[in-house]
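This section describes the prediction task in plain terms. A model, or a person checking by hand, is given the sequence of a single protein chain and must write out its three-dimensional structure as a string of tokens. No templates, partner chains or ligands are provided. The sample shown here is typical of the held-out split.
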Amino acid sequence: MDTLLADLKYSFRSTLQDWRFALTVVLTLTVCIGANTALFTIVNSVLLQPLPVPGADSIVLMANKYPKAGIGDTNYSSGGDYYDRMRAVTALQDQAMFKPAAKTLTAKGNAEQFPGMLSTPSVFRLLGVAPVLGRTFTDAEGEIGADQKVILSYGLWQQLYAGDRSALGRELRLDGRPFTIVGVMPRGFLFVDPEVRYWIPLAFSSEEKQAHHSNSWYNVGRLKPGATLAQVQSQLDSLTADTLDQEPKLKQILINIGFHQKASPLKDLLVKDVRGTLFLLWAGAAFVLLIGAVNIANLTLARATARMKEFATRLALGARHAQIARQLMTESLVVALIGGAAGLALGIAILWLLESIGLDRFPRANEVHVNGFVAAFALAVSLFTGVFIALAPLAGIFKTNLTTALRETSRTGTSGRRSRMARQTLVVAQIAFAFVLLAGAGLLLSSFRRLLAVDPGFRTRELSTASTWIPESKYTGDFELRNLMNQSLTAIRGIPGVRAAGASSEVPLSGDYSDGVIVAEGYQMKPGESIISPLHFIVTPGYMQAMGMTLVHGRYFDERDNENAPRVAIIEERLANRFWPGKDPIGRRMHRPTSEDIMRVDEHTQWIKVVGVIRDTRVQDLAGGGNLAGAYYFPYAQEPRRKYTFAVSGPSPAAIAPALRTVMARVDPTLALFDVKTMEERKELSLSSRRTAMSLALAFGGLALFLSAVGIYSVLSYLLGQRRREIGIRVAVGSSPAGIFRLVLREGVWLIGFGLAIGCTGSVAMRRAIETQVYGVRALDPFVIGAVMAVLGGVALAACLRPAQQATKVDPVVVLNEQ
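The expected answer:
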């Protein structure tokens, strides 16, 4: 203990004496560890920690998959699947189904939309969470007619009833229907969606209990003790085979579209879209730490070399190599721990900053916080970095002896070859790391710029949207729904400045979409070809004009397309090219399957005539992900919906929102408008996670560029100091200033060249990791790679100029007389 205290005392005294070195190391570590702490906090909270429910790691999600149907990767199941799995998947002790369901809550004469969840009564039993007040649902309340019960979140209970326990048993009106409050969940309870404010029982009809492939629900289950995910998957595979055999008319079609059932951890439902991005960013932060550690290692090597005379003296007086090595290690760890503590504080500040640039759009963002595990990570990184930056000088201490140490600090002024090569190697590694990081940042920037410039097939400027839900208790049938829509659109189009207005069952970039199989008349499927399930929209006349969707052939919907007219549709170009390549689709017919024999046509077939073709749109993702089969649109009058979204072009966003609320209040004051956003806002929100990733990558790249420039400058300056005597001799025997300048610059250019070459190789190795995160650019895009080479090479070369210039000013008389 006395020895440790003595080492610490000496380390602090030595650090204070060389405070410039200590300050440089602490600042570098603060920035590097701060970046790693912030990213690790996000990765830990979002990806590594289980969901905030008891035994979350044993909850699995089961879903139907149709990879060849063009609908993207979905995670839904049908009512029939739930009952089949209850019987066949014996590795699970409980199962439940649920889905988010926003409803209009009417209280004190005001109507407001609140997010909720429809769930089978078994969900609370599966989660193992008891209410803080009242009870959960009984199994009997999962049947139609007994399902008008509601459980409130703790926050909604406080908001509506100020925590009054007599709220139990009261009625709450949701979408105009009365629901009896039977329970209140604990404070902080959340499951999948943190916005959910209440839960109501999910009651399937007899038809829904038998339905398959009409996927609308999430199906989860909890593993039995000792059971594994692999066992669940094996039982699902057996169930899939049985299902195919029980549906002979659909069997080949299901095989062609790749139908299977998949089990995965429930957490994947939330994080699968951001996992790659977060790990990539964390790798970027790690690269920054490596570059900073290399810089500090170079500084430590230079300092250790300058202290060789001190070490030689101590060795001559009887000190052991191990004692000096222990002292160097202690000094490194002290400085590293100080930098680690400051880095932890900086990491917390970075998280606060990230909240303002889109962190809240990441899944589980509400769970991101610094805890003891994160603090332990920062401590571990600090200790690792401290050990790393001490290794190079330690190797020099153990590999030399007293005679060598004295010679390397003697009048000859030449440094040991090993020390010099070590510093050069570290600089090459630093440039290589910086190249890989800058290449990744450049690709993300180029990808983001391309996304901003992409034409989504609809207008985003001067376009506002607002959603509503029509309660069944007040508007009972299609006739009432059509009348309400006509009144609403007439009122909205009367707002001053409105150029066009319409409504749709879903709008682009809203995150809520429907799809459905549709078949063209006479279309012959090739052997092994898959059916497709394009996106399906219900829209009013005026909607496509308001959205700025471009008509390619035919016409838009108009007042002729009413409930008494023949069924019609407008389709996108890619769907038209799929069914009628090279032909005019106007006037051709399609139908939606009404039986297990999807291609069957009989007297019950309802034909739908194509009256228009619009340009392809990117409604799910500006990058073109999601449904690849296109979309088809039906007129609202022929297929009314209770939930729809208005699209209004013309007035400024600031003016349209209050005007919309005013005119809709005149139409029906009980209707709540929600999700009121401009299309620019929807576009920004859809890109927020990419923008956050790009901003972080650019910040890391800029930091890496700066550290690399500092690193090469410090190395060349150090080498210049070690070669002053050599340069003095060269000048004395006739070397010109230009020759000396080229001599020093050449060494820097070689280091830069080796670093760039290794960095290019590293970028090739990172190709697969980056290509899934970018849009419109190749993972080894020549322009980006060339730009990175030019920027990094230029900055590094600029860092070489000052030492080279200083070399030309060496005075041989002064240098050759130095002791």
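For orientation: The mean pLDDT is 86.
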